[in-house]
Design goal:
The chain is an all-alpha fold. It has one domain. Helix content is 81%, strand content 0%. The protein contains 11 helices and no strands. Helix 2 packs parallel to helix 9 and helix 6 packs antiparallel against helix 11. The protein starts with a helix and ends with a helix.
């Protein structure tokens, strides 16, 4: 494994995108545990992209414009859905340790969908991994490193968001603006993906 691979992977993982945004949102809204669960879900959402890449399916998807367009617009639709539900959510965010947290299953499913319906990951794996991997085993190993770094970085984002929770949630206007920010960001990422 080269330093170039690690540096490029860290840049790709740490750069805010849909997964980071979702993890921040989960940590801020539901606490530290939810942020880490969201990071785990986003990491699991990479598995289908890895499997597609190592089996050669990603190259076929990349070559088949219709299949790639379908995946792309499913991703766009899901990002628009996330924007809409975030904007419509008027429930009050409160820090209440006695209250039942959001279901871990719901957080994981949403996080997996965020990355599963992200065709940029497939394109990234198709264009990126072959430059560093000479065979099947190395491709699997490097994919594992990519996933481990994704989980670690996203978990830090989620825990950081949760640590800011008390300060943010004590200011109702900030909560409203944060919801608008997350909704706008999801919509903007959807629009960017649609136009790519």
């Amino acid at each position: 494994m080269s330093i170039a691979f690690l540096v490029t992977t860290m840049i790709a993982v740490a750069t805010p995108g849909t997964g980071v945004l979702y993890t921040l949102s989960a940590g801020l809204a539901h606490g530290r545990k939810a942020g880490v669960i969201a990071a785990f879900g986003c990491t699991v959402g990479i598995v289908p992209h890895v499997l597609a890449t190592v089996t050669g399916l990603a190259a076929l998807l990349h070559a088949g414009a219709v299949a790639l367009e379908i995946v792309k617009y499913l991703g766009v639709a899901y990002l628009v859905y996330l924007a809409w539900t975030t904007l419509r959510d008027k429930s009050e965010l409160v820090v209440d340790t006695a209250a039942a947290p959001r279901s871990a299953r719901r957080i994981v499913v949403s996080a997996v969908l965020v990355n599963l319906l992200n065709p940029k990951l497939t394109i990234f794996f198709v264009a990126f991994l072959p430059q560093f991997a000479t065979g099947f085993g190395e491709m699997v190993a490097l994919s594992g490193v990519f996933m481990a770094l994704t989980f670690a970085v996203f978990a830090v984002y989620g825990v950081f968001a949760a640590s800011m929770r008390d300060r943010v949630l004590s200011r109702p206007r900030v909560v409203v603006w944060l919801r608008r920010f997350f909704a706008t960001s999801f919509a903007a990422l959807g629009a960017k993906l649609a136009l790519t």
